[in-house]
Amino acid sequence: MLTIKNLTKSHARRTLFRETEMTINWGERVALVGPNGAGKSTLFRMILGEDAPDEGSISMDEYAIVGYLPQEASEPKDETVLEIALGITPEMEQAIHTIRTAENANKTDTPEYAEAIDTFNAANGYQLEPKAKKILKGLAFRESDFHRPAREMSGGWIMRAYLAKLLVLEPDLLMLDEPTNHL
Q1: Which value, in Å, is the radius of gyration of the alpha carbons in the chain?
Q2: Which mean pLDDT values do the consecutive 10-residue runs of the chain (183 residues) have?
Q3: CATH number for region 2-64
Q4: Closest by Cα among 76, 90, 70 to 163
């Protein structure tokens, strides 16, 4: 699924990796452990395509889904815990809007409606909310927390909501950058 070949990366005159090689196959679990400053986050950024190696290559299977939980979660805006866990993409949000608008106007025979239904079904839309709620419960959220604005919660609970989002996604490669004990 993920192959790293002859990877070399330096930062501020310090070599983090030299001719590093690694393969992660489907179904394998790998822990990357090292002291602060060893380059773990840099490697994650390179896998995500946000940073480039000085030498070598990183390749991933074309259809692999990658989930990444950074060290610091972004500050939530007005989303509820459940909305974060649902992880609705802009495309999915548009599809839901199109479906609701068409159904409210009794105009479900349009190409736009059919396309929105296809987008919704491709994302397994009918199962997203039950799945997100189940995962949130598994991460120790109470049902009363589902509709709370996430900004009212502590950083640890916000990180759990973002982890739930990744678990709903069911990534093939799940990268947790310095998961702490609250996870």
Answers
A1: 20
A2: 93 88 91 85 91 93 89 83 85 88 92 92 86 94 93 90 90 85 57
A3: 3.40.50.300
A4: 70
CA–CA separation, 42 vs 50, rounded Å?
9
Write out the two tokens for 157: 């609970």
- Count Cβ atoms within 10 A of the Cβ of residue 42 and give its class: 0-12 exposed, 13-18 middle, 19 or more buried: middle
- This prediction has a pTM of 0.79
Q: Structural domain boundaries of the chain?
A: 2-64, 81-171
What is the DSSP-derived secondary structure letter of residue 85? H
Q: Residue 72 to residues 31, 67, 93, 143, 179: CA-CA distances in angstroms?
A: 19, 15, 25, 25, 10
Token couple for 46 = 């390179």
